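Record type: monomer structure entry
Structure origin: computed from sequence
Chain ID: A
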Amino acid sequence: METAHGAATPLDAKVKIDLAAEEDDGEVDAKSCQAIVGSRMYIAHATRPANSFAVAAPSRYNSRPFARHLTAAQRVL
């Protein structure tokens, strides 16, 4: 996250967040992805409800996240 920069939208429209990415992406640590999604849930519900879809989409794959899901989760941060 040291090289992070701003984005106009919280979720990239070109990235498909689904399980079809299994062949392309490697698995990532589920606990780190769950921690990011958990902190984003607070952001979506307590402060910025407009970001709720960007939070909910990658959180569907918390049990077995891939690199694509982690990247989508980090984008809101």
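Annotation 1: Residues 26-76 form one domain.
Annotation 2: Residues 30-47 form the longest helix (18 residues).
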